[in-house]
Specification:
By secondary structure, the protein is mostly helical. The chain has 2 domains: 249 residues, no CATH class; 40 residues, no CATH class. It is 70% helix and 2% strand. The chain has 12 helices and 2 strands; from the N terminus they run ααβαααβααααααα. It has a two-stranded parallel ribbon. The longest helix has 45 residues. The relative contact order is 0.14.
Amino acid sequence: MNEPTARPNVTPPRMVQAITAGFNLVANHIYIIILPIALDLFFWFGPHLRVKSLLEPVVQDMLRQLGAFYQAQLDANAEAIREFYMAILEQFNLFTFLRSYPVGVFSLFSSSSPAVNPLGSPALFEVQTVGLVLLYALVITLAGLFLGTVFFREMAKYTGENLSDHKLRPIIWHYSQTVLLALILLLLGLLIAVPLTLAFSFLTLLSPMIAQIVLFMIIVFLLWLIVPMVFAPHGIYFSQQNAMSALLTSVRMVRFHLPGTSIFLLVIILISEGLKIIWRFPPPTSWMALVGILGNAFVSTALLAATYIYYRDGLIWMKSRQQNIASSSVGNNGRIL
């Protein structure tokens, strides 16, 4: 009787190995970071598309109404609060929507474009109507998703085994699935956020203490819901799946190895956000800010590569485990008792 063929010992994805491989990959293909660098340079020196003149009267009216309700509490901090909101309006730039989600190009300045740079101040253009704001936001977001499509496709080519240009689906297919994925996540977010916000507001009126407990439970629930979807873009670009299949594959893989994946994602976030504090040390008026742009582009791209490698190894391990379980089930069913 022939002995069954031994299956290769496939291990779960390793966090340290994935991160190390991600940094090595980007170091060997350094041109991949050109797109993040170019986007940050645009945010730094390019024009600003602002909504200050449109929203400033709204903010001022809001502050007056808050002052009427909470006069005693706001009197001491009224000027600080006003300056805070005015600073947000000064730095808000519609072009930062080029840093799109869930697929997009990484940027150090996407949260707020610098109002000054070593050459002076950027050109400022005010948007005067709400309709134009919505139109510009939509068009810029779609452009950002396209840039993200180019960026994520390049990463897939270097992390996929034998995945070259002729084996990738057309870029328009990837772009359409990326837009579809963004719409699915947006719709899902609205379906969840609206009732949760209403429930939290109602509980705040009844009991602030209970509301705080419920808020903590909501955050835990959202993390439980969001984390399994984090590899959905990888399914589109690495596995060439459509948006819905990529979502389901991501959920299955993360649920299969939830503790290890959660720790991996936490470490990735801590590295990225922790280093951003360092990258932002040089003021935007100094040419030393270029060091922060280069450092952020390299590290963020390397961490993205690490997620691709982790996803690839996770898929291999999950399929191996499923095959072992199926083989064991067939063997047990065929056993004569």
